[in-house]
Amino acid sequence: GAGVSQSPSNKVTEKGKDVELRCDPISGHTALYWYRQRLGQGLEFLIYFQGNSAPDKSGLPSDRFSAERTGESVSTLTIQRTQQEDSAVYLCASRLMGETEAFFGQGTRLTVV
Amino acid sequence: GESVGLHLPTLSVQEGDNSIINCAYSNSASDYFIWYKQESGKGPQFIIDIRSNMDKRQGQRVTVLLNKTVKHLSLQIAATQPGDSAVYFCAESAAGEKLTFGTGTRLTIIP
User: Fold this and answer.
1) What is the reported pLDDT for A1?
2) Which pLDDT score is estimated for A12?
3) How far lies B109's CA from each of A29, A41, B5, B11, B65, in Å?
4) Chosen from B31, B99, B106 to mutate, greatest number of chain A CBs within 10 A
């Protein structure tokens, strides 16, 4: 694909439900990031995958959040028992190894009602 | 440093003027820096990058300056246009590892 693809683009869910957000990175990019961006605010780091190394989960805000990545391809961010404060845009980015730019997807806008 | 939910600082500039957006980073081991532009409803887009062995890099209408002594990065946009209105983020990484974003600055170009 031409770029990072995220799905769905919008998701409305009821409080307490689980959601799964998907990210398809650029082929060949070994690094993948998830960020959260609340309305009018900056990018909050969530999790970072780099090749076969153990992921850096230091940004996950609670144990309701988890993410997986299959090899160097698709990643899924799961939020269990969603709360209203989870409402935000979730951005995924991928990057080649080393000192290169990260390419972002368009994000998934999550609204918890 | 990490963006931790702060509301964005803003900068308003008259169309045609130059703008300077500043960023302070915290990790002295960071050796690669990027500026991103984010327009409303879109993901961040790459503008320009710089490695720590340089202190200045120029692109089309944009210049990035790096001062490692005081851990400061700036983005200069020349002859600003309405399309430059966006949120601008700096990002840093060390040894090709995790990319950490700054708080961001909202730039508004006044026609």
Assistant:
1) 52
2) 98
3) 35, 19, 24, 9, 22
4) B99
**Nearest chain A CA: its distance from B79 CA (Å):** 25
Q: Which of A41, A57, A86 to mutate to test the interface with B (most CBs of B within 10 A)?
A: A41
Q: How far is A94 from chain B (nearest CA, A)?
A: 10
pLDDT tens, chain B, 111 aa long:
344 345 678 999 999 999 999 999 989 999 999 999 999 989 999 999 999 999 999 999 999 999 999 999 999 999 999 999 999 999 998 887 788 888 899 999 999
Q: Which tokens go with A28?
A: 């060949």
Residues of B in contact with A33 (CB under 8 A): 98-99
- What does the alpha-carbon distance between residue A48 and residue A37 come to, in Å, rounded to a whole number? 16
CB pairs under 8 A between A and B: 74
Nearest Cα to Cα of residue A1 among A23, A20, A21: A23
Instruction: Specify the pLDDT at position B99.
Output: 86
Give CA–CA dist B46/B49, Å, rounded. Answer: 8
Among candidate residues B29, B27, B21, B12, the one with its CA nearest the CA of residue B75: B21
